Amino acid sequence: MPDEPNMATAGEPEAAQLVARLERSLSNDSAVAALRLRARETRVTLCIGIGAIERRIDVSQDGIRPLPPAPPLQPWDFCVRATPRAWHELWQAVPKAGWHDVFALIKRGEMRIEGNLQPFMANLQFFKDLLALPRTGSRA
Amino acid sequence: MSQDLYEPMVGRYLQVELEGRACRVYVEEAGQGIPLLCLHTAGADGRQFRHLMCDEALTSHYRVIAFDMPWHGKSYPPAGAFAEGYRLTSDAYVGMVVAMSRRLQLDRPVVMGCSIGGRVVLQLAQRHGPEFRALIGLEAADHQLPWYDTAWLNRTDVHGGEVCAALVSGLVAPQSPQQYRDETLWQYKQGGPGVFQGDLYFYRADSDLRGKLGDIDAKRTPLYLLTGEYDFSCTPEDTLRTAASIPGAKATVMREVGHFPMSENPQQFRHYILPVLEEIRSRCTA
Fold first, then answer.
1. Within a domain: residue A4?
2. Do the domain assignments include residue A22?
3. Which residue range forms the structural domain that includes residue B56?
4. pTM for this structure?
5. Residue A138 pLDDT > 50, yes or no?
6. Structural domain contains residue B5
7. How far from the centroid of its chain's Cα atoms is residue B81's Cα?
8. Cα B99 from Cα B104, distance rounded (Å)
9. Hey, is the C-beta of A107 within 8 angstroms of any chain B C-beta?
10. Which chain A residue has the Cα nearest residue B166?
11. Contact at 8 Å (CB) between B176 and B168?
12. 3-state DSSP of B160-183
């Protein structure tokens, strides 16, 4: 993981566009509702870091909803951070080998997970699918 | 769906002694010809080879045999072993494959193993090469970097089946058909508590073969290594490095396949495995 994952270089995807793509995918009510059914007992606030931009997502009995942008130091249970390129590659319709899974990205140093890992691991497929939701959603 | 009432494989329970314990091991087989003994991945069972057993291109020349290791699939843990828990070691695994081959009275079988089964194939080549006609390692390497803490596989606050399946789900290639992806992962959801973790003791802690494979004679016993491009656990680079350290070993990187080629995408896999099996057969009849 680069020290400054937000420092986009020429040709790299823009973090802001990727954040917009993530938010659009979370507005797909039917896809989100189907996903929510698989982790009905889960109550978690997760953070997604795309380069230097952070977005929090609340998973509760009310559904899965992005929280509005807020000043730094907001609380979360765990945070999944990756470079813009990693998210861009993960969200391809058919991702390239080695860029196709959360753990593939962690192994290659393009992604890291911080915080309380227990809810993440206890609902692992749910969160992997949630993080891949933009793959089937609208494109940036 | 097939018009046939039954698929061609038959299953039976074999009485065999493994590590001094009486074991009841479930064995399936189909076909006739050169014995092809198949070894499943960690935390799974012999169902991974069901497609090969229904493929006449194989079964017309090979007797395809797969067994569920004790603790896996339809093979119970050995009597008296429940309380001890499960941990696979190199010696136990090598001994198991040799014992199964002898107990089944196989005449110099071809052994094909995947993942941990691919790793043990390298040890079989080293320790028992002349007993085998050829050896095939799928997703096999002398070593690979760990990519998660196996302690997550067996905790009271995490469902073992769910987390095992979710972890390995990323090892299935995105091109693999959904039905076979689901079947592959279902085996992980069905695994007994701590069994996948126990298998990975062999993989992670008791079989680092780096720099130790130079004495394998791949001219006497041909050795084939095939790895899927989407396998980030045993990467193609891991396999190519391993093959380069063994004179005569042949390595192939399989496109659009992950860590479970025979199970996740049998159609794609057969494009790669049939020529290997044909080469082995030609060598036998030459």
1. no
2. yes
3. 10-285
4. 0.94
5. no
6. no
7. 23
8. 8
9. yes
10. A125
11. no
12. HHHHHHHHHHCCCCCCCCHHHHHH
Interface contact B162, partner A, CB < 8 A: yes
Which residue does chain B place closest to A96, by CA atoms? B230
pLDDT in tens, A38-93: 887 899 999 999 999 999 999 998 889 999 998 989 999 999 999 999 999 999 99
Within a domain: B2: no
Report the residue from B145, B166, B173 with minimal CB separation from A107: B145
Integer Cα distance of B178 and A60 in angstroms: 29
Reference A82, options A61, A54, A111; nearest CA is: A111
* Helix, strand, coil tally for chain B in percent (to 5): 40, 20, 40
CATH number of the domain encompassing residue A36: 3.30.1050.10
Is B249 a member of any domain?
Answer: yes
Specify if B4 maps to a domain: no
By Cβ distance, the residue of B147, B152, B170 closest to A100 is B170
DSSP reduced 3-state for A25? helix
| Domain CATH number, residue B48 | 3.40.50.1820
Mutate to test the interface with A, among B144, B155, B158, B188 (most CBs of A within 10 A): B158
Chain A residue nearest residue B258, CA to CA = A97
B188 touches B44 (CB < 8 A): yes
Please count the structural domains in chain A: 1
- The number of C-beta contacts closer than 8 angstroms across A and B is 52
Quote the CA–CA distance of B4 and B54 in Å, as a whole number. 11
Nearest to B277 by CA among B11, B39, B56, B44: B56
The answer to whether position A9 is within a domain reads no
Is pLDDT of A5 > 60? no
ipTM over cut 0.90: yes
Listed residue (B264, B269, B119, B72) closest to B185, CA to CA: B264
Q: pLDDT category, B3, cuts 50, 70, 90?
A: confident
**Nearest-CB residue to B158 (from A101, A108, A121):** A121
Query: What is the model's pLDDT at position A7?
Result: 38
Of B158, B162, B230, the CB nearest to A97: B230
Contact A112/B at CB under 8 A = no
Tokens of A97: 């080998």
Q: Within a 10 A sphere around the Cβ of A1, how many other Cβ atoms?
A: 15
pLDDT beyond 80 at B61? yes
pLDDT tens track for B69-95: 999 999 999 999 989 999 999 999 999
d(Cα A3, Cα B94) in Å, to the nearest integer?
45
**B229 contact A CB<8A:** yes
